[in-house]
Amino acid sequence: MEFRSKKPFINKDEGMKSFLSGVSRFKSLRWGTVLLIVVSLFLLNLTPLSGGIKDFLYSLSAPLQERLWGTGSALSGFFEIFYRVEEVEKENEALRKENENLLSEKMQLERYGQENVSLRRALDLELQKDFTLISANPTGKDIFSDYLIINKGSADGMVFDAPVITEEKVLVGKVVEVYEHSARVQLLTAKGSSFDVDILDGETYGLAEGQGNFQLLLKLVPRDKEIGGGDKVFTSLLGGNFPQGLLVGEIRDIKKADVTSFQEADIIPAFEVNSLQYLFIITNFR
Amino acid sequence: MPEIIKKIIGISFLFYTLTVIQSSFLVHFIYCLPSLVLVSVLIINLKEEQKENFGLASGLIGGFFLDIYSDKCIGYYVVMFFIMGLFLKLVIKRILR
Predict the structure, then answer these.
(1) Distance of CA B12 to the CA centre of its chain
(2) Residue A183: inside a domain, yes or no?
(3) Is residue A88 domain-resident?
(4) Whether ipTM exceeds 0.90
(5) Kindly report the CA angle at A204 between A202 and A210, in degrees rounded to 5?
(6) Residue A176 resides in a domain
(7) Domain tally, chain B
(8) Which of A16, A30, A256, B77 could bridge B66 with an S-S bond, Cβ 3.0-4.6 Å?
(9) What is the number of CB-based contacts under 8 A between chain A and chain B?
(10) Which domain holds residue B64?
(11) CATH assignment of the domain containing A153
(12) Cα distance between residue B24 and residue B31, in whole Å
């Protein structure tokens, strides 16, 4: 009996060729996709299209983000009390002592007819007198670095490089990217942020440098200058980055090495990201 | 609608939501929380079969949303996640299986 296969006979070489051409087609398809992605990314970054896409997505999520930011801010303050009971007690004690000191200082100040509490409460009016301001709300924070997204953009008069402060004249950062309805703020503590500062008496100057992760380092303070923990740090006009006299933070952990001619210290920023609800952008600084 | 398009739309919506929630809500509680998008991309890549490419696509989409909400130029995390996906596919899976 003769056996006949229904399958057509395929030459081994032809099979191999067809297999190789399939592999080659598959590979070229993959490389084509990769090439397409790379070209798209280049186009996105070289044209203003990336700003448009970012602005669109920020604006789309802004209402939800504002609510989430507010809720997160309120809830974090509430829960913080539970796992910081001891710390809160110590803080409370320190604050009580500070309060006593402040009360005596206040009496003294009243006697000389200087600033009183009501004027301090009216600081926002002073702010309007000193600067042209835009108020904005933070809508999000960069997951990996010290940047905020705010809900005002060029349509509201936002300008590039504008200083961002709180109502208490505390410096928060500066605007580094402006979109139509949103903007990105680089916090003081972000890596790459550096500016001149003035310590307490107005005669000691230094350089504040962001270290990332909410850390700020005071550098280039001459060794012979006396600085102490708790000294207030303000912005200086020297670098021309920020208006003079904005509060930056408080000095802690001074590091003096014998071999260097400068001393360094950590600065505890005067703002807390969690409690930022309203921000003011100075648009007439430059 | 083809299944893959549905999957891509779903994953885009998921990653966008995760990025928005992490950048505006979770940042108040845990600063050092790893990116939820990164974790999701890792899980998808580890769970899927060697021949599937959805893990790579999810890396591209997740990277895009992280780029949008970070200070990096668009493409930074896209490329990182794509390379991570390839690495998981080509190296780890070949060793483990």
Answers:
(1) 10
(2) yes
(3) no
(4) no
(5) 105
(6) yes
(7) 1
(8) B77
(9) 85
(10) 3-96
(11) 2.40.10.350
(12) 12
Residues of the domain holding A199: 48-83+122-286
Tell me whether residues A142 and B70 touch, CB distance under 8 A: yes
The number of folded domains in chain A is 1
* Amino acid in position A144: F
Asked if B23 and A140 come within 8 Å (Cβ–Cβ), the reply is yes
Which of A61, A82, A83, A176 is the best substitution to test chain B (most B C-beta atoms within 10 A)?
A61
Please give the single-letter amino acid code of residue A200: L
Question: Which distant-in-sequence residues (6+ apart) come within 8 Å of A206 by Cβ?
Answer: A196, A197, A199, A218, A219, A220, A221, A233
pTM (predicted TM-score): 0.67
Asked if the C-beta of A50 comes within 8 angstroms of chain B's C-beta atoms, the answer is: yes
Name every chain B residue with its beta carbon within 8 A of the beta carbon of A37.
60, 78, 82
Per the structure block, which two tokens stand in for A200? Answer: 């307490």
**pLDDT tens by residue, A56-84:** 888 888 888 888 888 888 887 777 667 67
Q: Which residue has the tokens 């990096």?
A: B72
Q: Are A161 and A242 in contact (CB under 8 A)?
A: no
> Is A173 a domain residue?
yes
**What strands, in cross-sheet order, belong to the sheet with A171-178?**
A133-136, A279-282, A163-165, A171-178, A183-187, A147-150, A138-141
- Neighbouring-strand partners of residue A205: A198
